[in-house]
Amino acid sequence: MNVSQNHHYDAVVLGGGTAGEPVASGLARAGRDVALVECRLVGGESPYFACVPSKSLLSSARRGETWEMAVARRDELTRRRSDDPAVARMAEAGVTVLRGRGRVLEPGRVEVDGVVHGYRDLVVCTGGEPVIPPVDGLADVPLWTSAEALSVPDLPRRLVILGGGPVGCEMAQVYAAFGSQVTVIEASGRLLTAEAPFAGEVLADTLRRMGVDLRLGAALSGVEHKDTGLRLWLSDGGTLDADRILVAAGRRPRVTGLGLEKLGVAVRPGHGLPVDETCRVPSEAGGVWAAGDVTGVARTTHAARYQARVALSNLLGHRREADYRGIPRVVHTTPTVYSVGVSPTRAAELGIDLLTAGYDLAATTRAAVEADERGRVELYADRDRGVLIGAAAAGVGAAEWMGEIALAIRAETPLGVLADVVHPFPTYGESVEAPLRELAGHVRGGSE
Ligand SMILES: Cc1cc2nc3c(=O)[nH]c(=O)nc-3n(C[C@H](O)[C@H](O)[C@H](O)COP(=O)(O)OP(=O)(O)OC[C@H]3O[C@@H](n4cnc5c(N)ncnc54)[C@H](O)[C@@H]3O)c2cc1C
Ligand SMILES: NC(=O)c1ccc[n+]([C@@H]2O[C@H](COP(=O)([O-])OP(=O)(O)OC[C@H]3O[C@@H](n4cnc5c(N)ncnc54)[C@H](O)[C@@H]3O)[C@@H](O)[C@H]2O)c1
Fold first, then answer.
1. CA–CA separation, 382 and 387 (whole Å)
2. 226 is known to lie in a ligand binding site
3. CATH placement of domain 328-445
4. Which atom of ligand 2 is nearest to the CA of 168?
5. CATH superfamily entry for domain 143-249
6. Residue 163, annotated ligand binder?
7. Ligand showing the shortest atom-to-Cα distance for residue 163
8. Boundaries of each Pyridine nucleotide-disulphide oxidoreductase dimerisation domain copy (predicted)?
9. What average pLDDT is seen over the chain?
């Protein structure tokens, strides 16, 4: 390979997405000489292929727009997938943008499309990528991942979605709302398996009412291209015909092909890069940091931004430790599914004695006023420590009215104080009052 030596930077940031952009601009604004290496679009997945187009389509669906209007609005919001404004932001901050795929050659040297650049600190923000399950015939048929589903103008007549996690559920609601005949295949027995069971049940009920065919507890076992479209075989013996398959079967951190082994970093394909509480990656070479989906810690835009702030602070010499206890996980369907902290499944794995209290939103006056009684909230407390450690809610606008619970978990607010908080009438937010009183009554000193 013909390589030429270039500049020596204070820091090279690999990957210019949600996490990489603010680390690079923050370092540059602090006077550091920084290069941001990006092989696709500066800005990453979120503004062009993930959060923004999916939320735009969900919003259009709620407002009853036509598919053509929805696609036009989505493409306008994603700036037709042009990163010119993001590149201009970087230039303004004083960051050098290096277009191309970066990889480490040896400690202190990265190569980007044949040019070698020196660095003192390396910040890995390479995000994640969809997993394509090893199913017979799947590799031989045209597939969509969420990136295609959120950037092309096609509305398939029969759409099969593989996976009933956050991506599968959001996409099912979008495409069903605009008229596709949608089937979701989910290997586990319920939607949103990582979260409290009631959340997946509320969403399943809503999706079924929209005409979505949910195949829960069935895995895809084979696919074949036929003259009439795609023929799919399921592990339960069933078959399906489809025009398009959207694979939403999970994502993995992008850790391979980056040359990180040359720094003595413990790279495990399919797993996040190990980071300590300062977002530093243990390595033999020192000066290696990571933020965002590549860490596998909390795979959301707000978590990537948080880790970026933590990494930036430490890179600038101000020690800061990340605390992930109060970071929410949201599925932006209608109703919204909101989770924060420890789920009941996770608590069982950790051997925590969990106190649970719940409330159906139907019992609030707000639900009667809105004529929308869907949903429930559940709060989880650690009986021994007497504090909230998790919560889940399925309900309209839940991401807006559950914020106080995230704060309570993060701040370990005493249950007695939480139970004394008054919510405006009539709101869905009132739904947390009864469960908080119940939990406060159960823990020692909680009702003080
Ligand atoms: C369909 C979908 C919907 C989502 N909706 C939401 C939502 O509503 N809210 C939310 O909080 N989160 C959502 N997420 C998750 C969110 O998109 C991610 O958590 C976030 O984008 C992670 O940011 P990141 O910086 O880690 O990675 P990315 O934004 O993916 O950035 C990584 C960048 O690194 C670049 N790169 C990779 N390798 C190299 C290399 N070797 N050299 C140079 N560049 C490289 C990539 O091109 C990419 O631009 C959604 C995800 C999906 C898939
Ligand atoms: N609003 C948000 O914050 C948001 C929205 C979408 C995605 N995301 C992020 O993206 C990540 C990926 O989401 P996802 O939904 O792709 O992944 P996921 O891992 O959460 O869910 C994938 C689902 O696919 C199922 N599955 C896997 N292989 C299968 C097979 N062969 N047959 C049938 N089912 C199969 C799994 O059982 C699982 O339930 C999430 O962890 C989340 O952090 C966030």
1. 6
2. no
3. 3.30.390.30
4. 15
5. FAD/NAD(P)-binding domain (3.50.50.60)
6. yes
7. 2
8. 327-433
9. 96
